[in-house]
Amino acid sequence: MMKYLYFALLILIIFMINPQKSDAITPSNLKADSLFSQIEVSYPFSFIVMGDCQPYYGQLLNQTFLEILSQIAELSDPPTFVIICGDLTEYGSEEGYAAYNECISEWMNTTGIPFFSLPGNHEFYGSSSFEYYMTYVDPKFDYYFDYGNSRFIAINNVQHPDQMYYHINETQLDSVGVWLSTAPENKFAFNHVSIIRDHHGGGFVNTGYEEFHNSLCFYEAVADFNGHHRDYYRHDLDGIYYFTTSGAGGDLGGIFYPPLSYDKHHWLLVTVDESSNTFMEMFFYDVGHNAAASVYDFQIKPLQIPPEIYINEFMASNGGTIADPQGDYDDWIEIYNADICPVNIGGMYITDDLSDPAKWKIPDTQPDSTTIQPGESLLLWADEDTEDGVLHLNIKLSVTGEEIGLYTDDLTSIIDSIVFGVQTTDISFGRNPDGSENWECFVVPTPGYSNTGFESPENVIINFDNGNIYLEWDNVNGATSYKVYSSDDPYTGFVEDTSGTFVDESWSASAPVGNKFYYVIAIKETFRFNVK
Q1: Residue 462, C-beta contacts closer than 8 angstroms, at least 6 positions apart
Q2: Taking Cα atoms as reference points, which of 246, 290, 228 lies closest to residue 69?
């Protein structure tokens, strides 16, 4: 309580001061840098993002913003730093800059928490306002800093000394490229005007915005935060989350998503752990109430632990083993779920070239078709006939040897892969048992059944009589049924013979012309299989 009263007294003193420019002034960001350099890295850590504390007409500071600072100062688990996405002053006056500097400097003195700022459009009115910004806030308009596994990049995209409005210039893009390419694992960006929302020219229409977004995508940034729009908004574009948070004191308006119909002043608390999990909470402020309350939370970047699924079996030359629903004998890939939970592979990536993991994204539009239950498998057709359904891939397998890779939906982790050599028609290559590291050829392919659900009976007796063939074999303990395959070649071309009938451990049928080789398997377990 004493801490809060002391801070409130400091704020009152600020309001009583008629700020004057001083050569001894320390820009608030440089003071934040000094504080930040003294903080040891620990996990998890958190930071606060807010936007638009612009005072009302005739004011030097916004009362709501000051009370939000009080909320943050009283948090039981203080953030590592705070950053605000612009609109710090009313119209870039020296008095406004000086009041902001003194307020933020005193707040940092009191709390010991670094407070970083970046410019908004209200900071620059006339050439003198650039000088004021450099004197009271930061000698630089763009900067970055690191903490642990994360880099934080602030970019001025509202106005430049050359009077270039709401753009990101080539020099900035070059800097961003370097800063992102040399960054730790997590990368966060901050700017005043949204890169993607229609405003002041409209999203990617603005010079440099699309290039900036492409850099964030290429270097796999986590999120971009902005202000200006006087609302809260969240959008995911190409795997980059864009957050608008501009309710730290300025007038509210526009849309709020989510939560529904949210029209209160707010700020965001982002938490990062050592494994790079990133979570965000929104806190609201009701004028006159100092208690901070979380409105909702959102997982920005979960650490994706790949599910326990496997490329379990495949066939690169399907001459007549199994037809797809359209009646075509196409290459196929069997995915087996060894996990204890259902796994939806919709949204994951599959490729026949490990150097190009994003070659095909399995559609996520039909989860009923792409979800694999525990212990079950799913057939994917590598036929380049994607118009035939979500289980048809835009790849084909090469009988001379190739690769198969399955990746998470954010392409950060490979789930499973296989590099294979020359294949033989109608002989599959698979794991035995299911999900194991042991790969072997299956003269009798098993699409539709477990790779471990078969056993060959002993003592098979074969007889021919008047154009008929008769097979008898010993009972296989635990068998639920039997299948007979025949071929004219002892090494390849075996297909299931469905013309005959089973009677216990025997089978008879008209002998197929030319087929001299027979293969009997006992099915010891019934497996539900998603052939769709």
Answers
A1: 469, 470, 471, 518
A2: 290
Residue type, 251: D
pLDDT more than 70, % of the chain: 84
Neighbours of 481 (CB within 10 A): 10
What's the residue count for the chain?
532
Tokens of 445: 């392919």
Q: Name, of 142-151, 159-168, 507-516, the range with top average pLDDT.
A: 142-151
Q: How far is CA 65 from the centre of its chain?
A: 33
C-alpha span between 522 and 517 (Å, rounded): 17
| Type of residue at 205 | V
Specify the 3-state DSSP secondary structure of 335: strand
At what angle are helices 63-73 and 2-16 packed, to 10 degrees?
A: 150
Q: Return the C-alpha torsion angle 56, 61, 67, 72, nearest 10.
A: 120
pLDDT of 339 reads 84
d(CA 453, CA 432): 10
CA nearest to 53, candidates 19, 104, 113, 124: 104
**CA triple 310-444-452, angle to 5 deg:** 45
Quote the pTM value: 0.57
In sequence order, the 6+-apart residues with CB closer than 8 A to the CB of 45 are 79, 80, 147, 148, 271, 272
Per the CB < 8 A criterion, the answer to whether 303 and 275 are in contact is yes
Cα–Cα distance measured from residue 203 to residue 193, given in angstroms and rounded to the nearest whole number: 9
Using an 8 Å Cβ cutoff, are 401 and 353 in contact? no
Which residues are CB-contacts of 6 (< 8 A; sequence separation ≥ 6)? Answer: 110
Element (H, E) at 96: helix 94-111
123-152: per-residue pLDDT in tens? 998 889 999 999 999 999 999 999 999 999
Token match 């605000």: residue?
84
Residues 6+ apart with CB under 8 A from 515: 486, 487, 488
| 126-131 contacts at long range (C-beta below 8 A, 24 or more positions apart) | 126/92, 127/161, 128/94, 129/92, 129/93, 130/161
Tell me how far apart the terminal alpha carbons of the chain are, to the nearest angstrom: 65
Per-residue model confidence (pLDDT) at position 288: 55
Distance in angstroms (rounded) separating the CA atoms of residues 461 and 453: 23
Which residue has tokens 């939560």? 259
The Cα 117–Cα 83 span in angstroms is: 6
Distance CA 152, CA 142 (A): 11
d(CA 215, CA 174): 10
Cβ-contact 133, 98 below 8 angstroms: no
Cβ distance 236 to 247 under 8 Å?
no
Which residue in 393, 415, 399 sits closest to 308, CA to CA? 415
